[in-house]
């Protein structure tokens, strides 16, 4: 089960689906608010209920995964091992879904986190910010609730030229930044409701953090093995923190850091990443931890 990151969609696994299909049945999903999924209005904490509005966040997206698993994957048979693979915020979704699956007695066979989002702007990490950032935080949090302001910001960001510039940071090698990639990221931003999922996401100041989810999983003997795959040149998610997670959490059994790659190594360098994913999925045992 492949889960994309923020602003992406199931097509971001364009170089992953076919290679993995050689070792498993493979599904990719559009999280609610992204890709071709519906994009209902956002409802933030403290706002009055509104017909059809949703509280975007990791619980909502994880429940979406569980509903997909129950209705689409589970009919394949209870003996079918399930592997959750997520990139960026999709990795946090996978961790939270693994927590929920374990709690109901059906833990996945494994979880693979690709450049998992560290969510440095979450309130629970505010102590790590500079004094100036902490002092301006209340104002910033009020501003990003405003649809008129976000509409202007979203309009300035959701342009092919800007998307290409962001990709040049996210893919430091420059590989696979092509017209197909720009289009698959840009086109959903032009559909009705795209601003609402953006609003919901940028207001996630108090939601799940990966270390907390890893710690909870690690407290249980039936926790699935977790494997980390990281681009060493990720401009947003520091691989040093991934190494700390691997040190701190017993459920993590592998960490591979790939030199020169960025935030989305599965798309930037599929020739390097796919064999690793194939190996982990074909042999998901809790072997001695490896660090490369």
How would you briefly describe this protein structure?
The protein has 292 residues and is of the alpha/beta class. Helices cover 42% and strands 10% of the residues. α2 (58-73) crosses α3 (89-103).
Architecture overview:
With 292 residues, this protein is of the alpha/beta class. The chain has one domain (2-291): Rossmann fold (3-Layer(aba) Sandwich), CATH 3.40.50. The protein is built from 12 helices and 7 strands. It has helices at residues 17-20, 58-73, 89-103, 131-143, 147-157, 160-170, 179-186, 194-202, 210-218, 239-248, 265-268, 270-282, and strands at 2-3, 28-29, 83-87, 110-114, 226-231, 252-258, 290-291. The protein has a 7-stranded parallel β-sheet with strand order 2-1-3-4-5-6-7, sandwiched between helices. Strand 5, helix 10 and strand 6 form a beta-alpha-beta unit. Helix 3 packs parallel to helix 9 (210-218) and helix 6 (160-170) packs across helix 7 (179-186).
Entry keywords:
single chain; 292 residues; alpha/beta; Rossmann fold; 7-stranded parallel beta sheet; 12 helices; 7 strands; 42% helix; globular; disordered C terminus
Q: What layout of secondary structure does this protein have?
A:
Blueprint: E1 2-3, H1 17-20, E2 28-29, H2 58-73, E3 83-87, H3 89-103, E4 110-114, H4 131-143, H5 147-157, H6 160-170, H7 179-186, H8 194-202, H9 210-218, E5 226-231, H10 239-248, E6 252-258, H11 265-268, H12 270-282, E7 290-291
Parallel strand pairs: 1-2, 1-3, 3-4, 4-5, 5-6, 6-7
Helix pairs in contact: 2-3, 3-9, 6-7
